[in-house]
Specification:
Helix content is about 40%, strand content about 20%. It is built from twelve helices and 14 strands. Helix 1 packs parallel to helix 2 and helix 6 packs across helix 9. The N and C termini lie far apart (about 50 Å).
C-alpha cells in the first residue's frame, strides 16, 4: 500500500543495537502527529542473519514497519536507494544516530513543507559564513577525509574557503520526486576514487556541505530550504543560527539529536565556544 509519508530510519549494522534502541525509544515516546509508514533501512551488513537481533527488538514493540535492505555503505547513497524503491510522496530521512526530542515531530516537518515553494526541511542547518578549516577540525569524519584525499585541489574546487549554508543530512524531509532530481553520483571527486569507498564518502560530504550541495541545488530549483524546531517554527538560512538548533546557545529548540549535536551538548564551555565558531564564525 502506498503511504503518503515514509519515515526512513537508516540502521548501519556495524554500529550495533544500542543506537537502534535509542531511536526506537524516542520514536515510541514522542507521537509523530501525522500518519506515516515506518521504514527500517539496513546497510553495512554482510549476511541477513546479522539483522535478527535488530528485528527482534522492533518486533517486541509491536510496531508496524517495513524493511529495506541497502547495499550502499554511506547514508546519502542509501537515501537515494530508498527513494528509488519507495512510492511515498514524502520522505523523512533519519540517520543511525537520530533521536527524536519532541512530540508532533513529523507534523512539524510536514507543515513546514506545505509552505510555498519549499524543497527541503531539516532539523538543523549550518555554515552561515563559517570558516571551512575550523568546521572540519571539529568533525572527525571530515578530518579523516582530508587524510584520505590529501589534495588541496579537491578542497578548493568543491568546498572553497567557507562552509556553504546547508541543511544537515542527519534528518531531513523532502518530496520524493524533487529529491530524485538532485545530483549525487555524477559529482566529480578528486583523484582516482571511482567505485571506491573514498569516492562514496567524498560524494556524501560534498552532497551535504560542498559548494553545490543539496541545499544549493534546491535553491537553484527555485525552492526554499528550511530548518524546523521542536515547536514547529521554521527558519530560512539567514535565520538558522537564531533557531538555536545546532552548535549555538543550548540547542534548546532542537527537534532531532544526532552524534554532532550530542557532542556539543556534552561538551564543556571551551568546546562549545569552539564549535559555535566552527559552525557560525562567531
Amino acid at each position: 500500500m502506498k503511504s503518503k509519508i515514509s519515515v526512513v530510519h537508516l540502521v548501519y549494522v556495524p554500529f550495533g543495537v544500542d543506537l537502534f534502541k535509542r531511536f526506537l525509544d524516542s520514536y515510541v515516546k514522542h507521537p509523530s502527529g501525522i500518519e506515516h509508514e515506518l521504514i527500517i533501512m539496513f546497510n553495512g551488513f554482510d549476511k541477513e542473519d546479522e539483522l535478527k537481533q535488530f528485528l527482534e527488538i522492533i518486533d517486541s514493540l509491536n510496531l508496524d514497519y517495513e524493511v529495506v535492505l541497502s547495499k550502499e555503505k554511506y547514508d546519502v547513497s542509501s537515501y537515494f536507494f530508498a527513494a528509488k524503491n519507495l512510492n511515498s510522496e514524502y520522505l523523512l530521512f533519519l540517520n543511525s544516530y537520530s533521536m527524536i526530542l519532541a512530540d508532533n515531530w513529523l507534523h512539524f516537518f510536514y507543515s513546514a513543507m506545505q509552505k510555498e515553494n519549499v524543497g527541503v526541511v531539516g532539523a538543523s542547518g549550518a555554515g552561515w559564513r563559517s570558516d571551512l578549516k575550523n568546521f572540519w577540525e571539529y568533525n572527525n569524519s571530515f578530518g579523516s577525509v582530508l587524510k584520505e584525499i590529501k589534495s588541496f585541489i579537491f578542497i578548493g574546487l568543491h568546498f572553497g574557503k567557507f562552509v556553504c549554508p546547508h541543511v544537515r543530512t542527519n534528518s531531513f524531509f523532502v518530496r520524493r520526486d524533487n529529491f530524485l532530481l538532485l545530483k549525487y553520483n555524477n559529482i566529480l571527486t578528486a583523484g582516482s576514487f571511482k567505485d571506491s569507498s573514498a569516492d562514496s564518502k567524498n560524494k556524501t560530504l560534498y552532497f551535504e556541505h560542498g559548494n553545490r550541495n543539496m541545499t544549493y541545488q534546491f535553491i537553484k530549483m527555485g525552492l526554499k530550504t528550511l530548518v524546523v524546531d521542536r515547536y514547529g517554527n521554521s527558519y530560512e538560512p539567514e535565520d538558522w543560527m537564531s533557531s538555536k538548533t545546532f552548535w549555538i546557545s543550548n540547542q534548546e529548540n532542537l527537534l532531532v539529536h544526532d552524534n554532532r549535536t550530542l557532542m556539543y551538548e556534552n561538551g564543556d564551555e571551551k568546546l562549545r565556544k569552539e564549535l559555535s565558531y566552527a559552525a557560525w564564525g562567531i
